[in-house]
Please model this.
Amino acid sequence: MALFCPKCKGIMMPKKTSTGKIRMVCTCGYTTKDKEKIVLKEKIAVDKKNKINIIDKDIKTDPKTKVDCPKCSHGEAYYWLLQTRAADEPETTFFRCVKCKHQWRSYD
Ligand SMILES: [Zn+2]
Ligand SMILES: [Zn+2]
Model:
């Protein structure tokens, strides 16, 4: 694909830069930066994906505690704290049984 220089209408040639990116350059010195912009956008999209993956991992690795499940009597459950209603009320502890996935809350 031949590109024509918007400055002098000459034919532009692809050239590899010192950073390894391909740019269209002209003998008059004009350089297009379009390809570099596209590469940059792709990189940001990948970074966002990685961050989402990290958050997913954190949710799955809730801390465990020794507590008896009211359903199957298994002695270990995941737990997390949640502010339920007004800010001046104490946080509620939620449990989820490691074995049967039953969820319940602590009223302490
Ligand atoms: Zn030119
Ligand atoms: Zn259980």
About this structure: The first strand starts at residue 3 and ends at 4. The two ends are 71 Å apart (CA to CA). The chain has two domains: 3-60, 64-106.
